[in-house]
Amino acid sequence: MANSRKSKSADLSLRTAAQLAPLLPAHSSILIGLSGGVDSVVLLDLLSSLAPRFSWRLSALHVHHGISLNADAWADFCAALCARHDIPLTIERVDIAPLRDHGIEAAARKLRHAAFARQPCDFVALAHHADDQAETLLLQLLRGAGVKGAAAMPFLARREGAPALLRPLLHCSRQDILDYAAAHELQWIEDESNADDSYPRNFLRHRALPLLEQKFPEWRSTLSRSAQHFAEASGLLDELAQQDAVQAVHHGTLDISALQALSLPRAKNLLRYFLHRIGAPMPQAVQLDDMLQQLCDARRDAAVCVNFGDWQVMRYQGRAYAMPAMSAFEHNFMQPWNGESELDWPALSGRLKFEQVPGAGISLAKLRHAPVTLRLRSGGETLCPHLHAATRTLKKLLQEHQVPPWRRERLPLLYCGDELVCVAGVAIAAGYQAGPKEAGVRLLLV
Fold first, then answer.
1. DSSP letters of 47-111?
2. What pTM, to 2 d.p., does this model score?
3. What is the pLDDT along the chain (446 residues), one digit of tens a residue?
4. CA distance readout (Å), 293 to 255, 268, 366, 367, 441
């Protein structure tokens, strides 16, 4: 038995090396997601044995969720393990409480992925294996997931602006991993929640899949193959959406007439692609149907706002906008400006930048005549945007500049004393515009 395990262990190491070598250049930095369970312990052991051969630089991250009473002991175990392997370890503590409404598993997963995305590395290596892949596919199907959801987990996923996600053990079964751990006499920790079959994944793992294996012993490979078919179909749908988006998606907005011109399945595909592209979560099927119906069928002058999760989709002048839901704000908010280069602007969850520019923007000399403050609209504001132009109401200026209605009450207005000087991104009062040789400042909302 021992020799058999050692043989399988060597085979696992060879297979992993053969798969990773073409994908990971020499000197790549690889961050290992280390929970302390057998899967991640095996992954760390495997990569630490291969790293010198391929000149990879390893580090590890342990996310401390604080859910279990044993969480501190798990962090200590991971620290000792990494010290033995001479691998730098980061322990990141996260607070799961604000996300509990999403479910403990989903909240923990979201916090882990956010922690991984913040790390400075080329690749994040996770310890998912073939059993995990099959379980994920079944869970997604049982939740009514579409093609993208049923594609489950890719071996390698490149993400814009974040480290690539790598799953080196995706070709291994759970038994392969246990055999490797036994052959190398590895130690690991057991998360007590893994035995709780009230969690959907644990129910599948401990009760449903052992029963399934009696009739379908090859379920791991067949379900993994199905996940690959779904992934290919998802890729084709993405290619179609990219073609439709060329004319329809510009500056983070979506042309409603383009949606209306497509068949219903193709319009849904484009809307999903648009939401994914701007980083929005995927709405449920019912939410997507409602969103599409309101965007395409509501009256032209109707104020369309569809909420899904912590996000909103809105329509303005024939285009769809999607953004995180805006929080409540204090209408009487007032912020003095004393020459800072940046200030927070809570009403739009953004920041104001004051960019020094010679001969343009707002005259700094004229701003010295009275205290300078930043405020929100209260109604009745007027501004003259050019020396030879008539004074205009702010309402009219905002309409002319096509500022979406949901931003109008939240835009920063800069005052000198009681005079309205500037509306960020819209206009500067003629009497406060910097001359050709004057020092000026430009107000930017980012």
1. HHHHHHHHT-EEEEEEEE---STTHHHHHHHHHHHHHHHT--EEEEE---GGGGGG-HHHHHHHH
2. 0.76
3. 555 666 666 788 999 999 999 999 999 999 999 999 999 999 999 999 999 999 999 999 999 988 888 999 999 999 999 999 999 999 999 887 766 666 677 778 788 888 888 889 999 999 999 999 999 999 999 988 889 889 878 999 987 778 899 999 999 999 999 999 999 999 999 988 888 988 899 999 999 999 999 999 999 999 999 999 999 999 999 999 999 999 999 999 999 999 999 999 999 999 999 999 998 988 988 999 999 999 999 888 788 999 998 899 999 999 999 999 888 888 889 999 999 999 999 999 889 999 999 999 999 999 999 999 999 999 899 999 988 889 999 999 999 999 999 999 999 999 999 999 999 999 999 999 999 989 999 999 98
4. 14, 10, 51, 49, 45
Residue 422, phi then psi, degrees to nearest 5: -155, 140
Q: Do residues 181 and 41 touch, judged by C-beta distance below 8 A? A: yes
